[in-house]
Amino acid sequence: MWGSKKDRQEEGEQEPQDDHSSRRSYDRREPDERTSLLRQPRPPNSEGYLDPDDPAVSPYNLWSVRILRYFTVLFLAITFLWWVLLFVSIFISPPGMHSRGSGFFDFAYTCLTLGNLLVAIIFFAEPAKALRITTAIIAGFLLIDMIIILADSRIRLEEGWVGIASVVWAVVIAGWCVLTDRVVAWGKREEEERLTGRPETRRTLKEWLAILVATIFTVIFIIITILMTGTLGIRARDATLEKFGDRILVDGDKYAVHLACVGNSSQTEEQNESTIILEAGEQPLEYDLEHWAYSAYQNGTISRYCYWDRPGYAWSDNAPSPHSAGMSADALSEALAKQGEEGPWILVSAGTGSIVSRVFSSRHLKQVTGIMLVDPMHEDLLHRIGNPSRGFLLWGWGIISPLGIERLGGALFKGRNREDRVYGRNAYQSGKFIKAQLQENLVADSLSKNEVVSARNIQSANTPLVIVSSGIKCKTDDEWERKQKDLTTLTENLVSWDVVSKAPHQVWDTLEGRTVMEERLKKLVKAAAKVKTPTKIE
Length: 538
Hints:
Distance between the termini: 115 Å
Number of strands: 8
Number of domains: 2
CATH superfamily of the largest domain: Alpha/Beta hydrolase fold, catalytic domain
Radius of gyration: 34 Å
Number of helices: 18
Helix content: 55-70%
Strand order of the largest sheet: 1-2-4-3-5-6-7-8
Shape: elongated
Strand content: 5-15%
CATH architecture of the largest domain: 3-Layer(aba) Sandwich
């Protein structure tokens, strides 16, 4: 039952042989931090301590260090998911994720947070005082950014909860990275004293290179945070610029657009004249058409005009993505309705803004009594705006816009003021403006084109139409000239079509262009007065 004595002896002899073989195999195995310390050979005169280069001498022996690493990896995963969500929201706004600002600042803070966490994880076992100092500086500037965002009501409104959460998270993670490096340094010293008898002050070449690379990264992060802090300061300064008119909430109060009117509405009604509605081209309207319109108002050519900023331009907030020309037209309709503006209206627009005006006109056939297009964009040429390479370039400029290199340089060395940055020559540097251009690019050859094509089929045939084209543009671009001619058939009531020979795309930039535009507007006002408009219901 139990086997023979010989069998038992053979088994008894075999067991110690197996045990001896396994022990030798264990001893030959490459030691690491999990290898039993009692089995490691001791150097001579070590008094029982391990060699400092022994893999068992590691801060990972401490549960506090291991748990810090686990949490750092967890924070990295959370931050990466947030980064992906913010990246997507630049192109398509998830429900509840829209902020009235560009969205590039919160994305920049999240990129910075990812960078800090990656440096902390990659160089986790190589703590250094230089890393703690540079990361602490980053945390300090991020804290200043957080205070600016929370203290300035306009910036706080633009950034919304998404931007606030992003900057707060960036501050917390920067502090966490400082704490982690400090704890790892403490754990490393503790384990070295316990296992080798003294803390190790020497570093290998590999360790010095790792510390150098990590420090270079954190110094770059410091430069980035300094630039972002300066840009936030400029934004806070620009937010104090007073505006004429009001910001009006539209689209379910998701964002606000700027609308202003000049002139007496009662006088306009008495003279049976229409109110002029101005629509900007590729630049904020205050920098483009508004000066010319005000001159026409002072000359008595028109008795009243209103102007607005499309989402992302000048004082208007950014709209949720995607945002098409028809959505801009709806935002203008809602803003006018909330301000009690009932028409009749004459639409005056330029460049890409003509697309919005045409859609607006088709949706307000009875209220629109005239249309004036200044070197307008044709729907068949929208592919130029919607070019993918242009979209990628705009996205790239938007990503680096929080650094504000051009804005800071212009303010410090070129004397650029708030007016230049909000609606003037430097408005194109704003993250809001870049986001608006990107939104136009993404849907120009799809949603916007479909909307304006439909608008052309709906447009009232008897609406008076004036077109003023750039002579320079027509001479240098045959396709542009052909499409300008095609736009003269938008209605059957063409008042005039002028090609101003020496005028650029911004026709009003030349004296001849301004003169022709004002003369043709005067003719359009007279023609519009003959168009029957519905009587207002009292």
